Amino acid sequence: MLSGPGPVSNLSVVEVPTPSPPPGWVRIRVRAFGLNRSELHTRLGLAEGVVFPRVPGIEATGVVDDPGDSSFTVGQQVATMMGGMGRTFDGGYAEYTVVPAAQVIPFVSELPWPAIGAVPETLQTAYGSLVTALDLRPGQTLLIRGGTSSVGLAAAALARDLGATVLSTTRSPGRFAALTAVGVTHPLVDDGSVAAQVRALFPDGVDAALELVGTPTLPDTLAATRVRGTVCFTGMLSNEWLVRDFYPIGYLPTGVRLTAYGGEASDLPPAVLQRFLDRIAAGEVTLGPVHTYAMDDIRTAHTDLERGTHVGKLVGLPLP
């Protein structure tokens, strides 16, 4: 439970009554939940419309415990995300969560729950950014700014799967191996001037770019993109997402397109989730490392999330 915006000490493990699903909602026994930058923004007081105290968590995976009046069945494996989870109603940092049936995605997998819990929101964000926003095609070049984040790693794996050549950034050369492991062809050190490095490799610039750091690096990312190329603004690892005094003609390079992506559960087709779970199980693709935390260690998990301690996805495991 998050008592209010502020330090990590505002997060605590408390006992609350098991929630009951109202009409049109489903109760899920949570087996694993991913930690996301969105929840850090909520804790830091940067998210709007949050009523406290609140159980955080914009995603969860588990099994249906009470299907209510939906067509789901007890014990069915499901994922859920977004739709107000962890902000306007209690989210996934719990043993049970109650969500609208419309945002529940079924799947079948024998993967361990920590591996499953790392996938849904990360995959939804990466898939939507590349397919919906950037319309990435085989043979194109993609720059990922913020490449060792969980979404950055997933986007690299998906882009390679789509047949693209991937360039991806990190502030630490020691993390190059993590980038190449998910299919990055050109790992780059982010020294604040990535555009010069990109154009040394591709003089005309990349076809597409995925901005995950935020507005501080967005101008340089735009400068790395070719005429008629597209930049998608998806992430805010810097916790900065506003462009002050935006003057489009002065801000945007001529002919470079800027779009954005912010998706919901409906933007992740069940077939896409199932396909990638199956491919992960078969060893054909990886979305990056997974780091797990018991519920009692939720403060440590949030500290690691805020500091960027680990490469890959952080996953919480509810109390047994």
UniProtKB/TrEMBL annotation:
It comes from Dactylosporangium maewongense. Keywords: NADP, Oxidoreductase. InterPro entries: ADH-like_C (IPR013149), ADH-like_N (IPR013154), ER (IPR020843), GroES-like_sf (IPR011032), NAD(P)-bd_dom_sf (IPR036291). Pfam families: ADH_N, ADH_zinc_N. Residues 6-316 form the Enoyl reductase (ER) domain. This is Zinc-binding alcohol dehydrogenase family protein. The keyword Lipid biosynthesis does not apply.
